[in-house]
Amino acid sequence: MAPPSLLISVNKSASISPVLLRGNAFAVNILPSGQEDLANRCAGAAKGEERFATHDWKMSKEGVPFLADCQASLVCQNDTNLDYGTHVIFVGRVLEVFGDGTRDPLIYLDGRYAQASA
Fold this sequence. Notes:
The protein has helices spanning 17-21, 36-45; strands at 5-11, 26-30, 57-59, 65-67, 72-84, 87-99, 107-109, 112-114.
């Protein structure tokens, strides 16, 4: 795809929603298997900047925090958005990709964590 892009859907009530609506760049971190604690922190167990208090966070050249110890991190320029019901759909142009493709991703399916199977 040209340009490489990523679509995310964010609940309007999420604390990140107003930040993204200002057009700020963002990162999507694909956690590796075994990082359920961080997934739970970011899903609501920790608020605001508390989410960044643990693990190895880095800054991209665009000034976007991303998780260094990840299966993959994609830093995106926020190109456009679409208001849809309770969510806003954001389309980001991928600027940088970091990661370790040798690790299995953390999967959340049907309300629980699961393992990838070959």
